[in-house]
Write the C-alpha cells for this entry.
Amino acid sequence: MSIRIQVAARRCAPAVIALALAACATSEPAPPQPAPLTAATPQQQVAAIRAAAGDGEGELAIQPLRDPKVEDLREQASRLEAQGHYADAASALDQALEIVPDDPALLQERAEAALLLGDHDQAETLARRAFETGSKVGPLCRRHWATVEQARLLEGDAAGASAAKAQVGQCAVAGVNRF
C-alpha cells in the first residue's frame, strides 16, 4: 500500500509545483501605500483635535447626565493618558463603553486613545460612530471631524482630510439668545 502512495505522490508532484508557480506568477504586488501627510506625533494630533473643539463659549453644547461608574472610568483614563499609559487608558474607556456603548463623548475619547496607540483606522471609525450617535453641533462635533481629518492625513488622503476639516466648521451653532 505504501508503494501506491509513493507512486501517486510522484505523479502529483509536478502538478502541485506547477499550480504553486502559477499562483505566484498571477498574484499582483500590493499597491504602495500613500505617504502620511503629517509628521505630527500622536500626542500632537490629539492636542490639535482637542484644540479644534475650542472653548465652546456662547455656543450650544449638550451635556448628558453621566453614570458615576462611567465618570470614574473616564477620570481614570484621563490620569492614565497623562502618565503616558495609553493602552491602560484605552482599556478603561473600553470598560466604560461596555456600560454605555453609544455615548458620543466616550466614543470620541476612545477614538483619541486609538490615535495615541497608532490605530488611525479605529480612531476614524470611532469618531464617525460618535458623530452619528451624538449631537451634530458643538465642541464634541468638532473633535469628531478633527479626528477624521487626522486619520485621513495619516492615510495620505488629502481630499478626505480637507473634507473633514470643512465639516469641523459646520459644527458651530450659536447658543440661544436669552432676553
